[in-house]
Amino acid sequence: MTQFLTTDSGVPFLRSPEADFEGLADYPFAPRHIEFEGLRLAYVDEGPSDGPVALLMHGMPTWSYLNRKIIRRLVAAGWRCIAADHIGFGRSDKVTDDGWYSIARHVAAHRLLIETLDLRAVTLFCQDWGGPIGLAQAAEQPERFSRLVVMNTWLHHAAYAYTDALKQWNAQWQPDGLFGMNIPEKLSLGWFMMLPLGHMKPADLFGVISTGTYPVLTPEQDAVRRGYDAPFEGLGRAGHAGPRRFPLSLPFDNPQGGAAEAQARWFEALLSWKKPVHFVWGGADAVFTEAWGRAWAAHYPQASFDLLPEAGHFLQETHGEQIAEIVLERMKAKP
């Protein structure tokens, strides 16, 4: 049963029962926890303790489950993989007050995790909101990081041009937007994920919302759907404050909540990054386009750029093993 709790400072939150995560496809990882502001931040720590360290960051509306294929391949290669769930996601506690969430808080939570585990010589894997939150760590603690793997993300700065797709994403999550009105009452996040993963068409999505008619999924597709639904089973609208807050924290819409000034500082600080950086980009993403990825990579003479032409925004889900192989091969060529 879901637990309704309050921190010592009076912040209300929900805690998903561990039973909701049992038997997920390709995700046998045991949860660990640290405390952040009286809340449990969940993470997995897989592989040998003395192996090369990978810190894998997820975005919206996913959790560490998104990175399971990369984790599996890297662990097989002898790596130690740490992947946390942002507060409000996955196995982490879910604050029910929308106003509690900010990019600064997410950054602080991951900083605490890195310092608590004393992670060093870290290879960062980041995508979507994992980009600003993860790259903030490398910008502020560069001595702890040895390599960056950047996938379909961004850092806000004055020259960045937000795509129409990202502006539409923000609009759809406003209170009167398609997702703002219908998630989770008519459309769960697991079913939503079936659309960008190619398991559902736009007409199917509108069918779910308007008539409650769901398309037929294969057993493999439904296992993935369950993986993305598991963190939010039975939590209702209050339990979705974390996912709801990310799209409403985009700096063009919410500069303070989205840490616009800090993001610009992180972008500028990382322009002097001299260590290896690998851009692995999904070419079919309308949110963070190939052109933007290549332009960003061009700032770094030492950068590699690998395009996965068919991959969309959630490339870890569709091309996880390939991403891991690309990085392992790049590391052979660029120590």
TrEMBL record:
InterPro entries reported for this sequence: AB_hydrolase_1, AB_hydrolase_fold, Epox_hydrolase-like, Haloalkane_dehalogenase
Provide the alphabetized UniProt keywords. Answer: Hydrolase
The molecule here is called Alpha/beta fold hydrolase
Location of the AB hydrolase-1 domain: 55-174
The answer to whether UniProt assigns keyword Lyase to this entry is: no
Give the highest taxon in the source lineage: Bacteria
Single GO molecular-function term? hydrolase activity
